Description:
Layout (H helix, E strand, L loop, with lengths): L18 H15 L4 H18 L5 E8 L4 E2 L1 E2 L1 H7 L2 E2 L4 E2 L4 E2 L2 H7 L3 E4 L6 H12 L8 H4 L3 E4 L1 H4 L7 H12 L12 E3 L3
Parallel strand pairs: 1-4, 1-7, 3-5, 7-8
Antiparallel strand pairs: 1-2, 2-6, 8-9
Helix pairs in contact: 2-8
Amino acid sequence: MLDRLEPTPRVLALHAHDFEGMFSDLRELGEAIGxxxxxxxxxxxxxxxxxxxxARGLRPKRVFCMEWLEPVYTTGHWVPQMxxxxxxxxxxxxxRKNSRxxxxxxxxxAAPEALILMPCGLTMERTRKELPVAARRPEWARLPAVARGxxxxxxxxxxxxxxxxxxxxxxxxxxxxxxPAEFPRRxxxxxxxxxx
Length: 196
């Protein structure tokens, strides 16, 4: 039995709370493995700028990004920043802070025009299986997003739940969901509109 690993592993504690933190983590990781992340960072920043530039001037849309179905959790960390970048407004979100529990009454009062399901750690298939728990609630039918058929599920673990370069894919997915006329769909597997 080994008493210790050879060579001794180096542990990186990455603590991003927003996009700049993600880029800081990317640089730290690059340094640790001896890779230059500048080209990747430049490419990612260019994609972010393309989305934010195209989104400027678009009508803001009220959004609720649901990080857990029951009990209901709103998003935190980088997701509220992503929503803002594509001209969404999630008044229940907690930018750069942990996600938190909210009451269904709060969700109804926020009157989201688009409801985006991104339960932390759940695959899209698992989210679909868990959805009836939330959809049976009487408050569900009172949401404008539900009445308008603007309910979406995204691949949270791949594009939203963890800080990394794929957050930029998540940003593009949000733009496609909220502003389909301006952002034709490119991400075929990352999200779907669901029947309510």
